[in-house]
Structure prediction request, 598 residues.
Amino acid sequence: MLDANAQETPLVQMSEIYKHFGGVHAVEGVSVDLYPGEVVGVLGHNGAGKSCLMQILSGAMIPNGGEIYVNGQEADLKSPHDAKKFGIETIYQTLALANHLDAAQNLFLGRELKTRFGNLDEARMHTEAQDALRQLNPNFKNLKDPVAKLSGGQRQVIAIARAIYFQAKVLIMDEPTAALGPSETSMVADLTLRLKDEGIGIFLISHDMHDVFDLCDRVMVMNKGRNVGTFHIEDVNKDDILSLIIKGTLPDGWAPRGESK
Amino acid sequence: MSNTNGNTKLRFLPTGSSLHKLSALLTLLLLILAFSFTSPAFLSVNNGLTVLLQTSVIGLLAIGMTLVIITGGIDLSVGSVLALSGVVAGLAIKAGVPVMPAMAFGILAGAFCGFINGLVITKLRITPFVATLGMMMIARGVALQLTGAAPISRLGEAFGQLGNGSFFRIVEMQANGFPKVIFPGIPYPAVLLVVMALIGGFLLQRRQIGRHIFSVGSNEEAARLSGVKVDRTKIWAYTASGALAGLAGMVLMSRLVTVQPNEGVMYELDAIAASVIGGASLMGGVGSISGSMIGAFIIGVLRNGLNMAGTSAFIQQIIIGIVVIGAVYIDQIRNRN
Ligand SMILES: Nc1ncnc2c1ncn2[C@@H]1O[C@H](COP(=O)(O)OP(=O)(O)OP(=O)(O)O)[C@@H](O)[C@H]1O
Ligand SMILES: [Mg+2]
Prediction:
């Protein structure tokens, strides 16, 4: 089904990932891969385990079992720091911003720019952050305000800018447009396609079917922690996906709908 | 560009935290004014230096306390660690170690206690309140055990230098053969406090560790996800607090030229009060060294002024307690708006 990319090494390969919290099986033996320049949608109902799976890839959560390969090499991702070293950047569903810090301080948190003497280079961080933010939202103001004072959309823009600023090879977007207005949402869509053209591999978690069909090359559907199917986007339609999300199975008598077979 | 101009203009207006600092500074000035009316001797050079000296110990503790409070923690052990550090230094001197290295041992002992605090908090996941409460008892117990609860005296004149010496002291021999102090000099402890406060402020505002301290207190999970080494940052803060408690111990014991294993009881509360009066938030993510220094001086001036006005130590406690609650209350009202 996925032979189009078979000769390339995948950028990311997650294999048989398990994660449970006490009796809750959040991720149950999920395998998924991602190729350069590809957008893979990760879909599923609330609580299906999408964020857990992605947090395992971003090093924020340690799995109970399974392996992760980056560029064919086994990667032991014990912390977000480790994942960032592999070029894996994440826009977290929770945004992961420190409320008392301003936009630039958040954008560079953990990777501060420094002067020759090792001091914080506030001026450079400020201008770089300003450029990065204005790419996404040309009238981004309040750069010096603590992010607690910003709107949900502005906060989301900071989280997105942070993920792309550091030249990710793999980008995980966990509902990146949940708080955005229509123009910012389309900006993020354009951005996604641009990054894809640059050869970045993207995992996109979204509940928005328009986004999914507009942006994704493949979709992977999770149901109760399991991967219930990975498809080229041309092979499925909205109803197929909804059936997978809700029931965990394809409609009766389903056959690949697209040409790619 | 027009935007940037707008921003710089706006920055002349005090923002939240500098407003708090401003009001704390104003309070300090009002206190000084009030006390100089109630007791004429208050506003003299000599008394000023006394306040400086008295404040230096609380001030040193408050620097470390501020770092810890900004991470969202608290350090209840500093008073006991101060005593233990003094004991270590005193015993070292008694064992024949020269004063300077002995004091270095003392400070190291303080840093070690802080390091243990940090380890217990991050690795055993014990809350800072409980972990440092435990250390408060352990350090005090060790200090009393090592000395049999008896003071260590006859430590030599050199041991008294740090606490009693001063820069630019001018003494003139009079015709009658008695020396006359023309200028009492700037006490070493005051200079030490200024130097440590500047270093602390620099680390907090200009260095990565400071940024990480703020981020950990603001949102620990976000800091972790951003790649901040949260545990290391916390351990750093507690170790610094322990080392500063050790340094404060050296100043205090040196001033007395005697090591008192039961010195420093409840000093942690003064240090916490200084930080909080200076605008630090016990919820973490907010605070500054300059604010805490103002806070330390408010407490120092209050204590000294009330003493000179003949107020009893009990009434002093009551007043300082009210000041702490008042400072936090005013801060809360301001944040709500
Ligand atoms: N830190 C945690 N501790 C305990 N249980 C957790 C934790 N994180 C997630 N879970 C559980 O794991 C399951 C999967 O959660 P996850 O966040 O991955 O869902 P999701 O697919 O991202 O849902 P949503 O669409 O609502 O974001 C849920 O049942 C959730 O309650
Ligand atoms: Mg989620």
